[in-house]
Amino acid sequence: MEQLVAEKALDEDCKLCPKFTRTFMILGKKWNGLIIEVLLKNGNMRFKDITSSIAKCSDRVLCERLKELEDEQIVIRNTYEGSSRVDYSLTERGQELRPVMEAVHAWSDKWI
Fold it and tell me: Which of 4, 18, 49, 57 has the fewest CB neighbours in a 10 Å radius?
């Protein structure tokens, strides 16, 4: 509920397209871009492998961000019958962020 109120206030303050604003609320949240990038580069990954790829993100925060990205249908949590194995991958929606991430790479290579 708080997030919806914050998004509404931001929309009113910025006068930007609500979909654009919502997208930046998702992608701009700390660690989300890095999680997406790691999964784009590596495909299915176990939690511990994501953790080792994003060393400064705590387990608690990583767990929260993965859940949020699941709720946004960007990441899917894969479980395997008859096994305790769990891993994460990008959904089709998440995979479609590839050109966005490539554009960010190109911009950062030029300007940062």
Answer: 4
Quote the DSSP letter at residue 87: E
To the nearest whole percent, how much of the chain has pLDDT over 70? 88
CA distances to 17, 27, 28 from 56, rounded to whole Å, are: 33, 18, 17
User: pLDDT tens-digit profile of 13-40?
Assistant: 668 899 999 999 999 999 999 999 999 9
3-state secondary structure of 43: coil
Q: If one looks up domain 18-111 in CATH, what number appears?
A: 1.10.10.10
Helix (H) or strand (E) holding 89: strand 86-90
